[in-house]
Specification:
This protein has about 325 residues and is of the alpha+beta class. The protein has two domains: about 210 residues, no CATH class; about 50 residues. About 40% of the residues lie in helices and about 15% in strands. The strands form two sheets. Strands 1, 2, 3, 4, 5, 6 and 10 form a seven-stranded antiparallel beta sheet that branches. A three-stranded antiparallel beta sheet has the order 7-8-9. α4 runs antiparallel to α5 and α10 runs antiparallel to α11. The protein starts with a helix and ends in a 6-residue tail after the last helix.
Length: about 325
């Protein structure tokens, strides 16, 4: 190895890993600034129940995860993505498995009080058992929709889309709650200010201050490491994972697997976690032309002699042919 090669490798290591300049700059920023300065939330309109962000407008719906369904639900979901969501809009699906079960346990216990001393004693013992048992969580699904201000035709169109989503979810037998400003502050508190407590922290909304400034607690300290975020003095650790291999096909009936096996305990995530999936409706006006050009180039390469030396070209050409077929059928790119 030449001397210059060693220098190049050492320079490359400075850009990645625990000693990278990115981590150093991130921690220097968090040392004198709050994470709230990077969050886009600005205000909330109680009349329309819409959140006003830095450059977008949106709403949040809270419901329960749907772990099984029939044939109608996937078809209705496809219709929402293909026809209802406007171009340039975003929909985030956030599944939160929260250990903050204090409110649920308290409600369950109160419903069994006042009947008899025996039932009250059993309810108290069961509630204490649930509070002291590891791995018990509540599962909530948050649907966050936002649209850039420059692409919003009218406020009525955003409200109509929200009403359509609410009607669809209720038609599936799911409860739906439209988030208010207090719900945003309380709901994101356990993600941005994690603690080991079982109770949700009630945070009042100050209408005269930005929502993002009210989300981060002054006592929250964040350290960025190469593989995780550390909150406080090694009190809470947040790690992000992504999937390397995805199944070629997926069905709605298998969604329950994502929250753990119902029978095998070692196939469940024991601690709190969240799953995030974002959908962006692309602007097909310019994207369709670019993707069809890419499709033509790949198909031309797959038909040339070079395909014998690059086996992956055949599979890639099949995928792009599928994209071309969907575009010709007026399908959207997500």
């Amino acid at each position: 190895m030449q001397p210059g090669s060693t220098s190049l490798l050492n320079h490359g290591n400075a850009n990645f890993g625990a000693s990278s300049s990115t981590l150093r700059l991130a921690n220097e920023f968090l040392l004198s600034h709050s994470l709230s300065e990077l969050l886009p939330y600005r205000s909330f309109d109680p009349e329309t129940q819409l959140f006003v962000n830095r450059s977008s407008l949106g709403f949040v719906l809270e419901t329960l995860p749907l772990v099984g369904c029939g044939e109608d639900i996937p078809r209705q979901l496809t219709g929402i993505f293909q026809h209802s969501l406007p171009l340039g809009s975003n929909l985030q699906c956030l599944l939160v498995a929260s250990p903050r079960i204090g409110h649920c346990v308290k409600t369950w216990k109160c419903m069994r009080g006042g009947r008899s001393d025996v039932l009250e004693e059993l309810a108290h013992a069961r509630s204490q058992f649930l509070r002291n048992t590891q791995g018990i969580r509540t599962f909530r699904l948050l649907l966050s929709y936002c649209q850039p201000n420059s692409l919003i035709e009218s406020i009525e169109s955003v409200l109509a889309l929200r009403e359509q989503l609410i009607t669809t979810l209720k038609g599936w037998g799911l409860p739906v709650k439209v988030w208010q400003a207090e719900d945003l502050l309380t709901g994101l508190d356990e993600l941005l200010n994690p603690t080991e407590g079982l109770e949700n922290v009630s945070i009042p909304w100050n209408i005269y201050d930005s929502l993002s400034h009210q989300l981060i607690s002054p006592s929250t300290r964040i350290c960025v490491e190469s593989s995780q975020l550390v909150f406080g003095d090694q009190e809470q650790v947040l790690r992000l994972y992504t999937t390397r291999f995805l199944p070629p096909h997926w069905q709605q009936g298998a969604m329950g697997i994502l929250i753990g096996d119902p029978f095998e305990e070692f196939l469940r995530v024991q601690g709190s976690f969240f799953l995030s999936y974002g959908v962006h409706i692309c602007n097909e006006t310019t994207l369709k032309t670019k993707m069809l050009a890419k499709c033509g180039n790949v198909e031309k390469q797959a038909a040339s002699p070079i395909a014998k030396y690059v086996p992956s070209l055949k599979k890639e050409a099949e995928e792009w042919s599928f994209v071309r077929e969907k575009f010709e059928g007026a399908a959207r790119d997500l």
